[in-house]
Automatic annotation (TrEMBL):
Organism: Hemiselmis andersenii
Taxonomic classification: Eukaryota, Cryptophyceae, Cryptomonadales, Hemiselmidaceae, Hemiselmis
Stretches for region Disordered: 111-133
Known catalytic reactions: 1-(5-phospho-beta-D-ribosyl)-ATP + H2O = 1-(5-phospho-beta-D-ribosyl)-5'-AMP + diphosphate + H(+)
UniProt cross-references to Pfam families, sorted A to Z: PRA-PH
Name of this protein: phosphoribosyl-ATP diphosphatase
Length: 133
């Protein structure tokens, strides 16, 4: 008898942990639904509005992040985290980024040896600006 311990993502041919179903649970299903809605949204789809209006998507994601930070108990934290995940995944889907790509990015960050202080970037900072760290 032997046990396989997988490292990384994309073990199967579909870049998932298993070829026999979605073991990412509802997160994988949510991401697939959002990616599908990008091209096949039903009439009146709120998700389609988010894809078409980047200012609305940004506003909703920031709003939900603020609500998460203001949450005062476990139930509120879980509820607001679900909203943040939905809008973050909508931003991913809008740019054609799937869950496997997000997982690979997390894995790469985990493997970095260099430790940074983790300071917040100043308001107005954009990619390409000098790093505050």
């Amino acid at each position: 008898r032997f046990v396989v311990r997988q490292t990384g993502v994309g073990f199967c041919h579909m870049e998932q942990m298993s070829c026999f179903g979605d073991d990412h649970g509802t997160l994988g299903a949510l991401m697939r639904t959002l990616i599908d809605r990008k091209d096949n949204a039903p009439a009146g789809s709120y998700t389609k509005r988010l894809f078409d209006d980047s200012a609305l998507l940004k506003s909703k994601l920031l709003e939900e992040c603020d609500e998460l930070l203001a949450a005062e108990n476990d139930r509120e934290v879980a509820f607001e985290t679900a909203d943040v995940i939905y809008f973050a995944f909508a931003a991913c889907a809008r740019h054609g980024v799937n869950l496997a790509e997000v997982q690979r990015s997390l894995a790469r960050k985990h493997l970095r040896v260099r430790r940074r202080p983790g300071n917040a970037k100043p308001p107005g900072w954009k990619p390409g600006d000098p790093s505050p760290e």
